[in-house]
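LOG
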Amino acid sequence: MTIHTPVQHRSKLPDVGTTIFTVIGQLSAQHNAINLSQGAPNFSPDPKLIAGVTKAMLDNHNQYAAMTGLVSLKTLIAEKVETLYGARYDVNDEVLIAASASEGLYSAISGLVHPGDEVIYFEPSFDSYAPIVRLQGARPVALKLALPDFTVDWEEVRAAITPRTRMIIINTPHNPSGQIFSAHDLEMLTALTRNTDIVILSDEVYEHIVFDGQRHHGMATHPQLAERSVIVSSFGKTFHVTGWRVGYCLAPAALMDEICKVHQFLMFSADTPMQYAFADYMTDPQTYLSLAAFYQRKRDLMQSLLADSPFKLLPSAGSFFLLASYGHFSDEPDSEMVKRLITEQGVATIPLSAFYTDGTDNKIIRLSFAKDEATLRAGARALCQLKPR
């Protein structure tokens, strides 16, 4: 039964409706399809981590944590970042435990972006950036990454910067392309933002998932960028617990102060038992340092399994995503291709057009290899059996 309201209202996001992610999810469930679409693992986390949460609950750590987070956890994060990237963040004023990376992104944009501001970001992109910007009364400015390598055209960025530009959103390793920023990208970003009041919001939730011995070139690796950046990362992506919804932010104290003003009224604090569990778990650096090799094995397996498929695989340098092109054998829209893969092959993927606000269709689909081996083998087998039209 539907409750009908007499209230007349005006939507703040009139262009946002049912997303392709919902459509694919529903269709996938109807056909019991193998799930290579969702960016979340289908395997269990380390039992030690679950035991840590249980222990925290039994030890009565069940009430609100401090607004900015558990000091012991923030200390471990600051130490990790200094060891890996060289930047030193003050535990009291420059580290925030957020109720998910998404909450961190929202609090950062809401706290630092004002009505009339412009925010540059790059497409294809994680789908929450533009709506959050619009909710602040600001204007999202989408620039397209250059194919086939999904690289930033820095001259295009230079041309897009105006006196109203308040923020540039970076995502490395990149969802959905799996590409990573280079040292050259950092130098170009530094040059373009020098002597401006532009804030860099750097979504680095896949920071520990970088392949082939390459380095994660995050904002904390570059002092001039660190001093104007808000870095957002995720415990869920790192430790295979995306449903626990805990992340963190790093930022200079003056920027963090504005972020915390939003955070305290939006969430006040992140989940307390989870924070205690992460603080205990992260005392062993191998819990995150081993992640790149763990996912590289899955990437390599997926690439090997799909070698005889009709798809052309694009390189994946990081994250747990792999792009597959099909334009050489079909001209059907990618949204129709993924539906056909579900109904005919029993495997769910995501169309790359879903990551563009204008629906750009490059005849590419996204696969997630954050799955157990049986799922990867079954999904790859189904994709290999697709008959080109």
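LOG (cont.) second protein
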Amino acid sequence: ATRPRAEGADRPLREGAWPLVAASPLPYTAASQSPQELDEAGMDALRDAFATAATAADHAGFDLLEVDVAHGYLLAGFVSPLTNQREDRYGGALERRLRFPLSVLAAVRGAWPAGKPLSVRCTASDLQRGGISEDEAVAAARCYVDAGADLLHVVAGQTTPRSRPEYGTAFNAPWGDLIRNRVGVRTITSGAIPSPAEANHVLAVGQADLCVLGRPLPRSAEWLTEPRKDWT
């Protein structure tokens, strides 16, 4: 971001902006830069880049790696029928839409040590008519696991600006619950988990196996130590 959020969304540079690629040449909004449809050569280069990044992350000492296939980003753009309008072998049925993301995941899994967990951030629902169905989301999740994912970070919405998530406390937890229990895989949840009590509730009722925190930690340095006061 190059401007405060309160001043409105950033707009692409009029000149000199980075070239964008996507599953299909669809701008995110009418004011957004239009991407080019990713071709086979671009896929090969990006697949290698993902694997190289995984190796670099291992050498840097990271213990867990996550491949983002959610929120309308590059790989997610192939999975959702809202953003994938291709007519080649990478578009159409779910199996075809998953072809490139799964090839990237396989490359990352091959570069990432077997003894270190690999997560995939995935979309359980686009929260929009015409988006990925529940059965497709479950099927995709199974494919990620078969391709080497050890756990799934389940989210929903934001594939296009027309999706309207209901932002409440732990709003992604029910989606994680869906994937966790239908697929039989460990899941991560995130989004509006304001207190240790809420995190413990999500874990206790089996909606997720891990909670990822962002904003609460810089707001309170005692967020992680406060629950220990109740331990015996």
